[in-house]
Known about the structure:
It contains 16 helices and 21 strands. It is an alpha/beta fold. The protein folds into two domains: 6-255 and 461-486, Aldehyde Dehydrogenase, Chain A, domain 1 (3-Layer(aba) Sandwich), CATH 3.40.605; 259-451, 3-Layer(aba) Sandwich (Aldehyde Dehydrogenase, Chain A, domain 2). β6 and β7 form a beta hairpin. α3 (64-80) packs antiparallel against α5, α4 (82-93) packs across α5 (97-119) and α10 (269-281) crosses α11.
Amino acid sequence: MSNITQLDCYLAGQxxxxxxxxxxxxxxNGQVIGKIAEADQTMIxxxxxxAQQALTGExxxxxxxxxxxxxHKVADRMAEREQEFIAAExxxxxxxxxxxKSIDIPRGTANFRTFADMARFHGGESFITELPNxxxxxxxxxxxxxxxxxxxxPWNLPLLLATWKVAPALACGNCVILKPSEETSxxxxxxxxxxxxxxxxxxxxxxxxxxxxxxxxxLTSHYGVDAVxxxxxxxxxxxxxxxxxxxxxxxxxxxxxxxxxxxxxxxxIEKAVAGVARSTFTNCGQVCLCTEKxxxxxxxxxxxxEKLKMQAQKIKIGYPADPDVFIGPLVSKTxxxxxxxxxxxxxxxxxxxxxxxxxxxxxxxxxQGCFIEPTIITGLNDNARVNQEEIFGPVCHISIxxxxxxxxxxxxxxPYGLAAAIWTESLSCAHRVAPQIDVGLVWVNTWFLRDxxxxxxxxxxxxxxxxxxKHSLEFYSxxxxxxxxxx
Length: 487
């Protein structure tokens, strides 16, 4: 359990108390575990002013290597305080210890090291331009920071997805104002402490806490913010696009998903079942990349459904720190009510429940928490709301298909386009089908395997822009062309 009881904003190199605070709730038992600051307009203005000053001050004068060396110090200090980050993440989210210590916190640290190292070698273009009269010119580009970047991060992978943006933005020389979700602000607060401890110059990194409906709008529409990057719900992304439109600010959005897995007749069924179980139920289904729709070839459908049911039955639900617990609670009562409403909608739409569909009973304090049963359903058509709208819980719908062209068409019949998984032992099938799926990322015989150098993002309602590797560096940098005539 985290021992942080009050989370304050961090701006201009100082932790500042706020006139208003709200409760931080433990999703395991519904108890208040601390207070979170609610920033006001004055505090946001101060963060923006401090960032603008830092751009022309000490931070702006550092060399790329000096800047990246500082980011390595951030990673080193995060690693030293890893147990604190783990405890804070678990207290906020209710995630299992296994996931937090193996993925979320190490990846947060790795993001700083990876992007710092990549930024050292982020170069520009150069060309010799030959003119008709025989004269020549040298054209080359230099990469300049965008300026003040607002980072709006989500509650499902709090540290991982915040650092996924903060690290490359800082590596490119920007100043960052981080606004984490009000549901999960503790690891962002620890990150601010780390920034302070290692000597990141004042104003380079600021932490603004508060509810999105209040603080988020004020930050993203602020005249002094030069770019906005956001991960979260598609509806929120649409709202942010409207708020930044008048300033024509660069944006990068990773939004919602209604992701599919397709299991072909020749798939290794044991691997496919294990993979789909993982992609459906990891983090209680609260990952934008999780599978919510599964298409299984008719020849193996009965066997697949029975084995996936058996996998779901084996899932241990409970206290996040208990041994072998795979999923803890959902993040909040509000989200629990949302997912339960989709379980009810599935019943109303005529779904058959293979397993789950309700709330587990513990007969202890956990019954006041936000737990929910892993759920498998079938029997709905593709146009059912349950098959078109993002649920963001531990649930998947299984559909049956016979024809490859048919299933590709069905996979693409969605307003979302983030990720998909293909299960097949045919190399030809994998190469043939993957490019035809309208998503930003396709996995074959795996899921959630990421290389930080590759492009990440979605199409349609799932986002705009790409992150990862050079794609992140290109977003957080502005290439400026310099033309010199050679006589």
